[in-house]
User: Fold these one by one.
Assistant:
Number 1:
Amino acid sequence: MAAGMDPEVAEPNLPETYNAFFYGTLMAPEVLCRVIYGASNHPSTSLTITPALLYDYCRHRVRFADYPAIISEPGHTVRGTYVTGLTPSNMRNLDYFEGSQYERKVVTVKILTPKDKEHTHGASAIMAEAVETGEEKEAQTYVFTDLNALEKGEWDFEFFRREKMKNWADESEEYAEVDAKAAKTNESEIGIHEFLDQPDPTGGRGIKTAMGKELKELADKKREEKWILEEKKRIAKEKSKCQGTIG
């Protein structure tokens, strides 16, 4: 049994793959691939990406940030992507990328299918007009924890793709916006940056910040072992919670 595990709880195995629901910057395949593979143009043949709805949550803008947040709010819905085929190492990178502002939770989403068959695949399917299929799936998602940082108002995915994604996925040297800000940062222990003069709209997650390098270093054996232990504890806690609900 791994250190730190409750001796009365059987040590769980990590799943071979995970399913996740993304509702912000990670809806863009280029950003998702950059986080989980280290390159925006990495072929993601092992993943399936499908539009989906999450009920009883609401998406908000985050103050001074390019990225949004979701919090539990009955009666609201959030449109996003349901992604399958994520490996444990992919989830490790995602946990690091999201940082302490978010808590990973298991939710149930409803799968959508685009009305126009020309938009069934690729980026065009993400926000195309769609209808529910009636199919429900469990998924991991990241729920925001810092309520004081939220702003009222919906986050616009198309605006993000058009105006902001260059700071998150473009790997050329053309853009210097984040570089200039990253040079004035203090790096925290989780890789998120606090800026001395003005906020970084990527929250330290941009391609020109230290996080890009940190993501590539997560394969370090000790760091990987630490993540695996924490993930097993999270899974055991989730199972215990489910059993308590059933009982």
Number 2:
Amino acid sequence: MKKRLDARQITATCLLMTMSACDRTGAQNGGDPSEAISHDLGPFFRAETAMYDSMRAAIGTSSGDNWVRMMIAHHEGGAALSRVLLQENPSPEIRALAMHTVRAQERAVRELEKLLRDGPTDVESALVFLRPIQKMHDATTGVFGPDVCTVWLRKMIEHHRGAIDMSNVLLKQPGVPRDTANAVRKLRNEQVKEMKVLERAREGLET
């Protein structure tokens, strides 16, 4: 006699099927589809797509562990976006900021890795983070601008906002690393403000 799945098992199974479908899409035609279209979508597309896939696949043992793993992927993505910019001959001021961003994101990854937990994965507790991940991905990939420096600034603003949204979601869950989430939220809010100032300054240069 077949066992009946309850609603939570069905939801978790659907999530896993969605992730598998994404993997299959990338494998169609024997290669990575971003290879063919990343040029048209700008230099950041491959890094953005890799970050999105890594965050969705970062499943841990609980809500808190899921957030930690997803934020590690998030920070690695921020460093990757900044490395892409450094290959595009940015202005000295933006280059310095991008280099600082790489170091800061890598440092944050090392700190978060200390919070990782071992144990059976809890797919269901990861579901609450899918919406902010999707929102951030849509926002970053939807960014355009007159030059690569402005585009990077705008993408990083949305990237930081994604961390804020994910931290806000985490803080609604029980038994989570609240101090770390609050620290991330505070820092990213400050970085958004700083980058908005630079963005407005660059807009002034264009007029």
Number 3:
Amino acid sequence: MVKLFQLQQPKLLYLSSLNTPLAASRKEARGVQLDEVDRLPHTLKYFAALFIFSLTIVPTVFLNAVSFLWSKDDTKLARKSVNERHLSKLLRILCITIHIFQLGPIIWYIQAIISGIKFRHANDMRTKQHFYCEMVMADRDASLLRFFEAFIESMPQVLVQGYIFLGVYNELKDDQRLLFTAYFQILSLLCSLISSCWSISLQHRNLRIARPDKDNMTATETFLQFIWRFSTISARYTCLVFFAVAFHHWIFIVLCIHFFISLVHVSALQLTQIDNSSSKPGLICVGLVIVCAIIHIFTPFNMAEGPTIWRYLCGYTIEVLEAMVLIFASLLFL
């Protein structure tokens, strides 16, 4: 039965024109040359499934853990401000339940919307300022979580999609072509890249709005930063996909090396002091360094105060040198 299942048509729609119609049974399949370009050896199927599953589950658990810690810290600060000793058990249970169901980031969007509505309906200026600050802070936290989600969860999956698509395209023969539905896959990849790049610009803009000591970014400045990020990230993404298609699992070695180099880079140039009011500041600091190093796999990112020229110069120098090596090796192989 397992063998018969292995002979079914591939699930990827744009591969259907590349395969010879497969027989429904082993007996009918005799003498038919099967083209199974989208299949893995049976021993690797479980590893591939676990790998794709981990790209989804691990990031979302991490994001909800961060969201829960932020909620806990905000609650602690609120209790200090009103001299309350105990938090309402109902609100605590509700918060925990929301994060268990992986809906934590939605809390910050809801808080921003509620604060914005209260700001609109407030009468005196002092109350308006209070709710406006709450709205800005919630929007800042929501955009930061969205930024983390884009580069910890979305971009690795987009990298896998690009590897599969380009690998199939590279195997096309002269008389074969992709179906029209394949272009929807290209559109999906492009939209994911645009969304991820926009999350950086939006996070940077919202962060500056929340900082009284920083000038706000105009719409033009935000758009120009988006163009800059899209250009650099798409170039980096292309290098990684080409190398992955050429050398397959060796891409993991490259990503691990880049990750550890980024750990050193971030620890040396961007290590920040965490506020002592935060719960477990040492753990949060280590988590931020690891997250920033993961983001550096796709693009340099600064999370510390102070001059940024040396941080970005170091990050982009590493990226350019690595890109030259990856493209040169890929072109030689492909």
Number 4:
Amino acid sequence: MVLQEIYNSSFELMAPLQFKEYVITQRISRWKIEKGLTDLQKKIENQLDPESGDGRAQNIARFSAETINKIKPGDLFKAESSQTVVQIRLDGVLKKKQEILNLRSNLFDKDMNIKQWRANELRFYDSKITLLEELKNSLQKTHTLIITNTNLLNRRTNASVEETAEAKRKKRAVRKNAQKSAKEKEKRFIAKVDEMLKLLTLWKIYPSYAERKGRNFNKS
């Protein structure tokens, strides 16, 4: 098919030997481009299809959904990892697109005119750019949804951390108040014991005075 297209567009515009060399060069060049795009497209499709068996694809599908149900511990890490995987694929698509755009630009002269016998190359490059644009749009949509859900998970995680910290703070406050109350109770007990010891001492020295103090102490 490719050979037929090249023949129809170029054979009559160049010498036979030149045409032969051109065909060989084009077949090698286009095969490399086709293979690179096929491999890239397959990787992208596998990672965007939760039924592909790729573990990352399941996470990507989950975190690129409109809503996330049943949030679990570790989801934030998985969402961030999914975001990284999609970003890597998106970067690969953009890089490949730029490579083909560079090849395409070489078809034109300084006046932006293209030689007639290279028109078939232009159509080939344009078809691949169209494919890459579709892959880019799909990845960007997925990437945007994952970013949105990652930010949501991040806020929820921070809120959970704050709630946990507040609960710990209250627990520390209760424990601190209990310790303070226990210390004050201990001080009152020690003071009472000291007073009793003083009374016992006075009882031995001044029995009548100690008796009066004892009655007063008991009344208090």
